[in-house]
Amino acid sequence: MNKNRNVTIKDVAKKAGVSVSTVSRAFNGYSDINKETRERIFKIAEEIGYVPSILARGMRAEKANRIGIAIEDYDENEPTYSFTYRILVGFMEYASERGYEVVFLPNLSKYQESRLVQILKDYHLDGVFLVGLKLSDEFYKQALRGEFPCVLFDIPIKRGKIGFVGTDSIKGASLAIEHFVKNGHKKIAFINGHENAYVSLQRLDGYYLSLMKNDITIDKTLIYFGDFTEESGKEGVRELFNRHRDISAIFAASDLMAIGAIKELKKMGKRIPDDVEIIGFDDLDLSAYITPKLSTIRQNSYKIGVSAATLLINLINGQNINQIILEPELVLRQSTKN
Amino acid sequence: MNKNRNVTIKDVAKKAGVSVSTVSRAFNGYSDINKETRERIFKIAEEIGYVPSILARGMRAEKANRIGIAIEDYDENEPTYSFTYRILVGFMEYASERGYEVVFLPNLSKYQESRLVQILKDYHLDGVFLVGLKLSDEFYKQALRGEFPCVLFDIPIKRGKIGFVGTDSIKGASLAIEHFVKNGHKKIAFINGHENAYVSLQRLDGYYLSLMKNDITIDKTLIYFGDFTEESGKEGVRELFNRHRDISAIFAASDLMAIGAIKELKKMGKRIPDDVEIIGFDDLDLSAYITPKLSTIRQNSYKIGVSAATLLINLINGQNINQIILEPELVLRQSTKN
DNA sequence: TAATTAGACTAAAACGTTTTAGTGAAACTT
DNA sequence: AAGTTTCACTAAAACGTTTTAGTCTAATTA
C-alpha cells in the first residue's frame, strides 16, 4: 500500500509556489503566515487531496497525535461488553474528529512487567484512557504518578495530568430512592458494590442523603455489599430477606446485580414489581430484554467515551479541566410501578 | 511523550559495535548476517529494552505493519454490540501478537466520497477488515476490485486479495433442524434473513437439506423472509401462524428475530417450549438472559475476529488461503425440549 | 595464479513531516 | 539616517527506521 504513496506536503508546496515549511506552518496554525498564502495553500491541499501523514508527523513532532485506549482483560463470560463497545466508539469518534489516531491496547496486563510510561513511548502515544483498571493493578500506581496524560473511568483522581470521567453516582442513587419514596416505600434495601470502589461510596452517600431528606430512618442492615456481579445480586437478596422479610424495594448498584436479584426474588415466589420494586444502575443492553424489563439509572456509555477523549486531549494540550461528570437518567421500565 | 524518546536502533548498534543497518537487517530476518552477530544484537536489544518504532518503520518500509478495522455505523439502539466487541477484541489480540498495529476506522460511511484505497493510503494501512458492510455500500464495490488486501465478514468473495470469514451456515441450520426432527417435529417453520444476504441462502440450503434427509416434505409457506431484526421476527410469527396454526418448531436465522418471535408467541398465548420450540442463530449475550433462555446456533465471535486477522495478515504477506469457515455449535437452553 | 563468488557487513539516501535558526524586505523609531 | 522591529517566508536538520548499492575479506573455481 505504500508503493506510490499519497500526495505529500511537497506536492502542495510546489503547486503553491512556497516552501515545504510554509505549508507545514499553515497546517499547524502558525501566525506568521500571510492570510492569502494560507488560504491558497488550503485550497490547493483540498484540490489535490493532501492529508498529512500521521506517521511522519508523529516521528518528528513533539506530539504524535495518537492516543491509546487500554481495556480490561477480555473475559468470555462477561455479558457487559456492549457497554464497553459504546464507550469505545464514543472515544474513537470524538478523537478522530479532533485529528487523533486511536490505538487499542488490549490485554494490558500482559505487559505488567514493563513500565506504563515505557509502553506509551514505544507506541508513540500522547496519552491514554484506562478503562476497567483495578485499584490493585500495578499500572494504576504508575498512572497515579501523573507523568503523562491519562484519563480514568470511575476512579476520581484529578491531580497532575490525570483526568476523571464518570456518572454522578450520588445523583443517580438519589433518583432511584426518590422514586421509591414517591411510591410510598419505607423499607428500601440497597445492594451496593464492593466497599473499595469509589462509585460504591458515592452511591451509598446518595442512598443515605435521599432517605434522610425524606425522613426515613437509616437502617444499615438494609444494606448489602456485593461485587457488581450477578451472583452477588442473588446473594444479596438471600441475605437481605433473611434479615428483613418485608423489604418492598431494592436499589442495586449495577444492572447485573439487579438481574441476579430479580432471579432470586422470582425463585422466592415474589412478584415484581407488585411485591418488590427494583431499580438497577448502568442500563446495559441486557436490561431491556430480561423479564420484567429492568428499570434502571442509565449511564450514557457513548458519552462516557466522548468525554474521556475530550478530557484526554485537553490534558495533552495543557488545559486544566480534569474531570467530566455526566448526568444519570432514571429509566422506568417494568421492574417498578410507574 | 516524545521528548526523551526511547532506546533507538542507534543505541543497539553502538552497543553491539555494528552499523545501524546490520541491526535493522537482524530484526527483519535477513539471511546475510552472522549467527553470532544476530544473537548478540538480540541480546543487547533485550537488555536495553529496544522496540522498533512502528512509526519510523511505517514511513520507510513497504509495509507499515498496520491494519484497519472498519465497523458499521454506530446505532444507539442496536443491542448486538457485545458480539461486535468480541470480534474486535479477537482481531486486536491476534494482530498485536503478530506485530501489527490496529487502527479503528469508525463511521466509514462519513468518507463515502473518497476512494477506499485512498483512505488506506492516508492511514498507511496494509489492509483492512470490513465488518457490517452493506452490499449496497459504495466501499463494497471498491473492495471488490481487489486492489488491496481486505477481509469481509459473511460476504463470500474469495478473489484476488479479498478474504472471507464466516460461520458454516449450512451446518448451523442443519444442527437446528436435526434437533427438531429428533424431537419429533414435522411442521418446522423458518424465519430467514433477507434474500440478498449470502448467509440467508446458506441457512435456507441447510434447512432444505436437513428436511430432505429426514424425508420431510418441503412446504415453502413455512418459510418467512425477515431482515434479521427483532421486529421482523414478530412479523414472521404473525404471518406464519396465519398460514399454519399448527407450527410446533421455529428456526430463526438470527437471535434477534428469535427473540421477536418469542415475544409474539407469548402474546398469542403459546408456551415455549411446550407448544412451540424455537432455535435462534448467533448466540448474543442477550440470548441467555431472556425468558425463556434462547437455544441457539452459536457463532464464536471472538474467533471470527481472530480468523479475520489471520486471513488478512496472510493476504498481506502474499499467502493464498483466503477463507476461514468456522464451526457452528448448537447451544441448548430453555426454548427447546432437550 | 588470476578471476569469481560468497559471506558479512556498511554508508548513505530515503520516507514525510516539524522545527530551529535564520533571511531579506518593509515599516516603524529615535 | 541609522537602528530596530515586524512580517512573511525559507533552508536544512532532525525524527528512527529500511533499503539500495556498495565494500572488503576469504573462500572457491577455472
TrEMBL record, chains A, B:
Pfam families xrefs: LacI, Peripla_BP_3
Going by the entry's taxonomy, the superkingdom of the source organism is recorded as Bacteria
The Swiss-Prot or TrEMBL record annotates one GO molecular function as: transcription cis-regulatory region binding
Q: Which UniProt keywords apply?
A: DNA-binding, Transcription, Transcription regulation
Give the HTH cro/C1-type domain ranges: 3-37
Is Transmembrane helix one of the keywords UniProt gives this record? no
Q: By its UniProt entry, which CDD domains does this protein fall under?
A: HTH_LacI (cd01392), PBP1_LacI_sugar_binding-like (cd06267)
Classification via InterPro entries: Cro/C1-type_HTH, HTH_LacI, LacI/GalR-like_sensor, Lambda_DNA-bd_dom_sf, Peripla_BP_I
The HTH lacI-type domain extends over 7-61
Could you tell me which PANTHER family the record lists for this protein? HTH-TYPE TRANSCRIPTIONAL REGULATOR GALS (PTHR30146:SF109), LACI-RELATED TRANSCRIPTIONAL REPRESSOR (PTHR30146)
Under what name is this protein listed? Alanine racemase
**Source species:** Thermohalobacter berrensis
